[in-house]
Amino acid sequence: MSKQKIIENFNGQHSKMNIMKNIHPKLFIVDDEPLLSEMLSDYLKEREPGLNIELFSTGEACIARLHEAPDAVVLDYYLNTVEKDASNGIDILKEIKKRNVRLPVIMLSSQESYAVAGKTIMYGAVHYVLKGQDAFNEILGLIKANV
Amino acid sequence: MVELSFLEKFTKGDIPKMKKYISMYLNTSPETFDKMQQNIVDGSWKELAVNAHSLKPQAEFMGIVGLKEVLIEIENKLREDQTQEMDSLFDRAKSMHTESMKFLQEFIDTN
């Protein structure tokens, strides 16, 4: 196979990976920071207008709506900044996985910690994304690859 | 003190959108700083770390130069149970925040 053919094949596979299988996927974003939720929602809707996005400020609110069958969940690790009694992201991740083990969950955190990242992956998160300027594009890529 | 280049790039120069995000920051961040101040008074170090942690990405998105680094320092010191410098670190963060609020409010008012 020629080098050009190999590149074409690779690009073909790569672009297939970046097309969502579902035309109108439902995405739940769970974060108690309204600024980040709003920016992420705007960013994703601009690039994938078919996305149906729901925002939640607590994991409990997200769990209560899981019967609506979201196609993916973006879940913050710290969810008790505003509501002190709210469950943290890892507990919500466990609960989501208990109810639907195949639902892709992308964990989001400002914590640069391998231990924390490893823990979330161990409990079934598809990826651990660091909150920051690059997070938006990274999450978009992960949604395309998993939905 | 405030560098809006990320927000400009993120919104592709859409001023109403920039104003929407800046307004959200202006509306929510003072309460977090108030909570942090109270955390220091109460010696609630764990809560202080959580509040400082939550402000980091917001400071980055708003382009408040140096604030994220001070918040990281607060978090790191608290992780090592070093609480003696909390007053001065918080004062530094609060002063950056106060200055940035003026700049961001001016942006809202003049655009």
Beta-strand level of the residues of chain A, as a percent range?
15-25%
As a percent range, the share of strand residues of chain B is: under 5%
| Sheet/helix structural class of chain B | mainly alpha
Beta-strand segment tally of chain A: 5
| Chain oligomer state | heterodimer
Order of SSEs of chain A, N→C?
A: HEHEHEHEHEH
How would you describe this structure to a colleague?
The complex is a heterodimer of chains A (147) and B (111). Chain A has 6 helices and 5 strands. Chain A is α/β, with parallel strands linked by helices and 147 residues long. A 5-stranded parallel sheet of chain A has the order 2-1-3-4-5, with helices on both faces. In chain A, 31% of the residues are buried. Chain B is mostly helical and 111 residues long. Chain B contains 5 helices and no strands. In chain B, helix 3 runs antiparallel to helix 4 and helix 4 packs antiparallel against helix 5 (86-110). The relative contact order of chain B is 0.18. The A-B interface holds A 32-36, 38-39, 42-43, 78, 80-81, 84, 110-111, 131-133, 135-136 and B 6, 10, 17, 20-21, 24-25, 28, 32, 47, 50-51, 53-54, 56-58, 60-61.
Summary of the model, kept short:
The complex is a heterodimer of chains A (147) and B (111). Chain A is α/β, with parallel strands linked by helices and 147 residues long. Chain A is built from six helices and five strands, in the order H-E-H-E-H-E-H-E-H-E-H.
Keyword list:
heterodimer; A: 147 residues; alpha/beta; globular; B: 111 residues; mainly alpha; 5 helices; 0% strand; elongated
SSE blueprint:
The complex is a heterodimer of chains A (147) and B (111).
Chain A: H1 3-17, E1 26-30, H2 34-47, E2 52-56, H3 59-64, E3 72-76, H4 89-99, E4 105-109, H5 114-122, E5 127-130, H6 135-146
Parallel strand pairs in A: 1-2, 1-3, 3-4, 4-5
Chain B: H1 5-11, H2 15-42, H3 45-62, H4 67-79, H5 86-110
Helix pairs in contact in B: 2-3, 2-5, 3-4, 4-5
